[in-house]
TrEMBL record:
Residues 15-54 form the DUF1540 domain. This is DUF1540 domain-containing protein. It holds the Pfam family DUF1540. It comes from Lutispora saccharofermentans. InterPro entries: DUF1540 (IPR011437).
Length: 57
């Protein structure tokens, strides 16, 4: 499945993604999305956050 942000041939420096079912997941747990979006705005802890960039493979 194609995601809603661009896909790059390189990875986002400093971003680790272990979700190997994501369209943007690359070897060594790198993210190849051109940008990432984390939601929601008013999250109060880790459990309330969500990677809105995720797109299934």
């Amino acid at each position: 499945m194609q995601g809603r942000v661009g896909h790059t041939d390189s990875h986002l420096p400093g971003v680790k993604c272990v979700v190997d079912t994501c369209h943007y997941h690359a070897s060594d747990d790198h993210c190849t999305a051109s940008s990432i979006e984390i939601q929601p705005r008013n999250a109060k802890n880790t459990e309330e956050t969500d990677c809105a960039t995720f797109a299934p493979k």
